[in-house]
Write a structure and sequence with these properties.
Blueprint (H helix, E strand, L loop, with lengths): L1 E5 L5 H13 L3 E4 L12 H13 L4 E6 L3 H8 L6 E4 L21 H8 L5 E5 L5 H13 L6 H12 L1
Parallel strand pairs: 1-2, 1-3, 3-5, 4-5
Length: about 160
């Protein structure tokens, strides 16, 4: 799979290690920078090109990093055709996770749901709230989880993509 990757200063070191990990899984990474560390860089400058690569089909999916991951996800989601999910830490669901009433104690279930229910094509990771091991685990789970293709999810995604 061809994956767009990028970060701002807050994920600069982590992205290097995450790239090696992603490539060890057999994927190709297209790095949208930054190439050098600059503490005052602006995340949209890196997120927009990576998100556009996903939206145009140049890359199949994207993995982006930032301090919280919030602004980075917001930037990516400004690009039509991008559905960016944010992950900033393992969490256990308090109630049923789907319409069937299933309950999960998997702390990475939210990552799976972003693919299964929302067909997220970009994953935003928090460089300040996740360890490198958590980033790797979330990335591997996310890349390995397919969209469910259930009609209700397709219908909802179509509504998102029409805006």
């Amino acid at each position: 799979m061809k994956i767009a990757i990028t970060t701002d200063h807050a994920g600069f070191e982590a992205l290097k290690a995450l790239r090696v990990f992603i490539e060890s899984l057999g994927h190709e990474c297209v790095d949208f920078g930054p190439q050098t560390f600059q503490a005052d860089d602006d995340y949209p400058d890196f997120m927009f090109p990576a998100a556009k690569a996903v939206a145009t089909g140049d890359c199949e999916v994207g993995i982006i990093l930032g301090g919280s991951g919030n602004g980075e996800a917001m930037a990516a989601n400004r690009i039509k055709g991008v559905r960016c999910a944010l992950f900033y830490g393992p969490v256990i669901a308090k109630t049923a996770i789907n319409a069937e009433g299933d309950i999960s104690d998997d702390p990475y279930e939210i990552v799976k749901l972003s693919r299964q229910h929302n067909d997220a094509n970009v994953l935003s990771l928090s460089g300040r709230f996740l360890s490198l091991d958590e980033m790797k685990q979330a990335t591997e789970i996310w890349l390995g989880t397919p969209f469910s293709n259930l009609e209700r999810h397709e219908r909802r995604i179509k509504k998102l993509d029409e805006v």
